[in-house]
Amino acid sequence: xxxxxEHVHEGKVLPRLVEDIIKSKYVRxxxxxxxxxxxxxxxxxxxxxxxxxxxxxxxxxxxxxxTNHVLRNLMAISQKNxxxxxxxxxxxxxxxxxxxxxxxxxxxxxxxxxxxxxxNMVKEMVLKALLYNKLVYIKVKHAE
Length: 144
Fold this sequence. Notes:
single chain, two-stranded parallel ribbon, mainly alpha, 6 helices, 2 domains
């Protein structure tokens, strides 16, 4: 989890998150399924350098250019040729799982943080994530 202020673009945080996960002994990343917010050569380069397959829904105006990362160009061609086929081939609908999690956290705990200091905002977000995970765990255990 990485908490930033509203001025930090999602795509800029991804390399840090990938680095943190790679350091972990418990998690392996094989692919990243993401939306157009992660459509940048820097993201494709980061994922490629770490042997992670980027499955990123490119922006609508994405173009093939010699300055683009080769994987981004291949993705642009694939998506331009048949977007629905590309979506089906990469299980694009799975992107909505994280959207559902964020939506549930916001509905449960509120859409905003109440802390003023950034360090307390981070603690508040971590606490909300931990509570969400605990609630899901309890619900799953109760269902068994």
